[in-house]
Amino acid sequence: MRDTPNSTRRFRYLWSGRFWLASLMALILSIVIMASMSLWLPEGPAAVDNLIIPLVIFPLIWALCFFYAVMDPSLKRATLVMTALLIINGSLVAASIMGMLS
Amino acid sequence: MIRMPKAETARMLDIHGWSAVLFGLALYVVVLTGAVVVFAHEIGAWSVSGHKMDGALAGKIDQSMATLTEQVPEEYRHDVSLYQNSAGYLIAFFHTHEKNDSGMLADIGTRFVLDPEDFSIVSRHDGFADDMPDITSSFLEDFFVDLHVRLHAPNPIGLYLTGLLGLLLLVSAISGFIMHRNLIRDLFLSPRGANRLIKKRDKHTLAGTWSILFSIIVAFTGAFFSFATTLGLPVIAITAFEGDQQAAIEAVLGIQDAEDPTPSPFVGVEAIVSRVQQTDAAGSLPTFISIEHPGRVDARVTTFHEPANGQLFGGSHLFNGATGEYLGKKPALGQQPSFGSDLISLVGVFHFGLFAGMLSKIIWLSLGLATCYVTYTGLKLWVARREQQARWRLMGRLTDITAYGTVIAMNGAAIGFLATYHRQPDVVIDWTINGFFAAALVSILVGFIRPAGAATSQILQALMGLSLLVLPIARLITADGDWSVYRLEDNAVVIGMDISLLVLGALFVWLALKATSLKPITSMQAATETTKGATTHG
Amino acid sequence: MAEFSTLLALAATMAAFAWIRHTDPKNRHAHKASPYQGKRNTTLWWLLSMVPGGVLLLLQQNAAFVMWFAAFPLLGWLVALPKPSKAIKP
After folding, report:
1. Chains B and C: how many Cβ contacts under 8 Å?
2. pLDDT digits (tens, 9 = 90+) for A69-85
3. Cβ-based neighbours of B295, under 8 Å, separated by 6 or more
4. B296 phi, psi to nearest 5 deg
5. Which chain A residues are closer than 8 Å to B336 by Cβ?
6. Residue C38 in 3-state DSSP?
């Protein structure tokens, strides 16, 4: 444990933006990226590549999101980047669900 | 390894340590059982002391299959799966797909367990596959596999749990890699004995560094297996198939062309099995046969095979079930070979390590145990740095109990299984579970009765060794006494398992004895010191 | 066959590892052995330790290659773990 002035507060991490970025945001973002990948990846000869590749690399996408949220020295930038990615991929997924892509 | 500002290094250290403190013990159980179930089939064959017939799928099976078909309700004759379990019994599952209580499509039908020699019925059950009682002959093996796959929690919670633990292992490995400043320089630094903490740290980092890549591979492939069907496929179905999961599954599996229910006699399993064994097809006996729409013009038979010598991927082969015509090799997913299909096969190769017989299994077992060792030494290091505080000494105790107790409990399950399988087959499942919990309880008691410290972990280690030594003896005592089964090729593993268990058990007992006899005084001192510590700080 | 080529490749890799470890300055220093005098060529020996895997790949021994690849870190650990004996000659 580090000796920060707050270190006596048990659940101090709940007030840290980085905690929410690395846990909830990383999880949601990685799921949304996986979903949107299935829309723009090439299908391949058997028409399964776009479905299989996101499924397989989902844990790696998550790890990337997680470590990015943890490692970026600037919390503000990390929040901006992840929110932007979420909006871009999320709107793609939403458009597909509403049938706007077909 | 990577130069980082102080704040990021500290954050990485926090993540590495605290994630392990919170979930490391659960992770240990999943990794250990994973390492053990690399040998699931061997455990299955060993637990019933071998079986009396190899290659039951090559037998004269058609007549019996026809008779069974007549005993099954019309709607269940849609599809049939056929395989020989590791206890030697033949399983024939006549089934179709219906929505279950939770609205998901699931297999429903009649499952026969058959004697491999004369195909007489050993047991019969009807209903949803998920609701059927376990097959007792493979229960020990299934019990261990289930512990690894879902920690015996109900679906899908169990899979989420193990998936999250997979992600945790990924985080531990990657954060360890980022944190370790002298990664390359310390690759061949054997643990220094300067003081206890340095030695503990050196042991942990050395094993951790070498096993980073493998940890990442098993963690990510394992998380994939947990999340693919419970999270990934539903999400992709919503995104790309307007929520139609069945359509998504069919697209992935490559469901064949239009159905044609015109009746046509089924060509039979025997013809297909003998055809697929020719070298221009698979060249080997299938391990699993799946028959779709037998008795119709559009009947299809798929045979599944282990990888041929030197190959990574096992294959599946497709036949026309009405004519017996060989339709060629079938990719794992989709109807044509693709990168995605190879990728899935590769994920399986790297996660299971079953592609090249005994040697690949031994390597995967060792890698799994190495990961367990890293988890254990990491937790012990964390505790050793904080042993002035009572709650961390409790953590150290729990670490020892989990590390050795998981093995002891699994051995307890095995003893419960062996004690009842031949004599009271009705209670095999109960006794296997009881054995597991009884042995777990013993480890917990032993772990808590004595003061925490080196001596307690050695006692647990000795107990683990003893429980391993008991297994082959218990098997010999409870076996049927029919020694002729050991002539069969499949059953060589029974004796092999016996010998391995004896050697392993003796090794652990010896290690525990050696540790106590080398430093009887220091371990006594440690014990009294910790007791003192407990009274002053507790 | 796959087993044999794997074990052969692993034996070669192990030899390379043993040499890197034998000449490792930090390890020798930490265990109070005299420094190694000759030229070390660490990079060369690391490359040599990976040659067996490359050969298996070239020969398209895929199963053997994956087994070698998986056992590579195990071997490294195995070689690195024991304390060096003080008697080793410089």
Report:
1. 97
2. 999 989 999 999 999 99
3. B69, B77, B263, B264, B265, B266
4. -125, 165
5. 45-46
6. coil
Q: What is the value of ipTM here, to two decimals?
A: 0.93
DSSP state of B126: E
ω into residue B133 within 30 of 0, thus cis?
no
Domain that holds residue C23: 2-80
As for how many domains chain C has, the answer is: 1
Domain ranges of chain A: 17-97
- Token output for B296: 């119709």
Closest CB to B339: pick one of A39, A49, A62.
A49
Q: What percent of chain A has pLDDT over 70?
A: 89
Tokens of B67: 């008779």
What is the C-alpha to C-alpha distance for residues B94 and B66, in angstroms, rounded to an integer? Answer: 12
Residues C58, C59, C60, C62, CA torsion sign: negative
Express each pLDDT in C5-51 by its tens digit: 999 999 999 999 999 998 888 888 888 888 888 888 889 999 999 99
In a domain, C45, yes or no: yes
Q: What are phi and psi of B88, to 5 degrees?
A: 100, -15
Burial of C4 (0-12, 13-18, 19+ CB in 10 A): exposed
User: Are the beta carbons of B119 and B64 closer than 8 angstroms?
Assistant: yes
Nearest-5° Cα angle at C46, C41 to C50: 145
**Shortest CA distance from C79: residue in chain B:** B188
